[in-house]
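Propose amino acids for all 325 sites.
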């Protein structure tokens, strides 16, 4: 048996209820993990509210965590009891003290990465890798726009893009977040409540716009993002913290200068074990060499998952939020 957060009906944070559930034994190709830390992400809110429907009800939310291997099922190689590991993906189920998950979603943790860091960055860090290396191969001299630059994904994107030699422009909601973003590689923080974002981006880039705009906010920002992209540039919509992004008519892409638009999902880029392992190695290397620092906004006991969701939804957090199992 293990403690886990269960959701019996869609709704607010109050639907996150602590319960005791069976753990079971790992089947062929599975790993039993005793978790120490769990990542909290906007996708968990989407599942909680029913925007992303789970396979069945009730269910346990969460898509990333870190801990120690307890046991492995038949056919599992490269993982053994006592080994420190982290994972991302699979069906929801991370908000628990222990869980069983497919071995092809699990990676071994190097000494340079703590369990807290891993839980705080697996989903966000691999998303940053996907956005900067796979969706658009950002290079030295490129100009990029990052919305929510002081958030969990935003801080990692700013640092990694800066490491690649890009000029980083980011939107933030307060002077304090502007300073945080600047300290993490954002060359030009923009206070979106006080400034016209598109005008500032055009001014910073000499009227040209950015090669790529990364938009995790959605409803409030997508139209603005479109106005920030240079000719033949790319708008990447990968989140919707402010609501579902509005529809864009195909003709708007032509009018903006032969623009490209994509809506990537991380799990299409780490769908195989080989893809996951390769991306994780790249992420861990950036942590080990110091070019990426993982900022943890706050840590909450598993039983207080509702408070963690409230903190994330408030848009007051800076960095990642994690649960302590």
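Proposal:
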């Amino acid at each position: 048996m293990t403690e886990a957060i269960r959701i019996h009906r869609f709704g607010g944070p109050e639907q996150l209820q602590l319960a005791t559930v069976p753990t079971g034994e790992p089947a062929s190709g599975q790993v039993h993990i005793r978790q120490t830390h769990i990542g909290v992400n906007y996708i968990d809110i989407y599942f909680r509210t029913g925007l992303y429907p789970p396979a069945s009800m009730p269910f346990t939310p969460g898509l990333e965590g870190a801990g120690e291997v307890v046991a492995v099922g038949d056919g599992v190689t490269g993982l053994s009891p006592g080994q420190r590991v982290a994972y991302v993906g699979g069906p929801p189920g991370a908000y628990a003290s222990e869980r069983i998950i497919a071995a092809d979603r699990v990676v071994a943790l190097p000494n340079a990465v703590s369990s807290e860091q891993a839980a705080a960055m697996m989903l966000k860090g691999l998303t940053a890798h996907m956005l900067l290396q796979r969706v658009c191969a950002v290079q030295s001299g490129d100009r990029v726009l990052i919305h929510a630059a002081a958030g969990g994904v935003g801080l990692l994107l700013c640092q990694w893009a800066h490491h690649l030699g890009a000029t980083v422009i980011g939107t933030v909601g307060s002077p304090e977040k502007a300073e945080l973003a600047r300290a993490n590689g954002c060359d030009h923080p923009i206070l979106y409540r006080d400034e016209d974002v598109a005008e500032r981006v055009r001014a910073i880039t000499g009227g040209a716009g950015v090669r790529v705009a990364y938009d995790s906010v959605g409803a409030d920002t997508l139209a603005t993002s479109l106005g920030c992209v240079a000719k033949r540039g790319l708008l990447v919509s990968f989140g919707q913290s402010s609501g579902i992004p509005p529809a864009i008519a195909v003709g708007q892409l032509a009018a903006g200068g032969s623009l490209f638009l994509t809506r990537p999902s991380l799990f299409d880029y780490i769908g195989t074990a080989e893809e996951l392992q390769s991306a994780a190695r790249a992420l861990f290397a950036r942590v080990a060499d110091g070019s990426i620092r993982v900022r943890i906004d706050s840590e909450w006991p598993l039983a207080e998952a509702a408070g963690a969701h409230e903190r994330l939804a408030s848009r007051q957090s800076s960095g990642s939020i994690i649960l302590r199992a």
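The radius of gyration is 20 Å. Residues 115-135 form the longest helix (21 residues).
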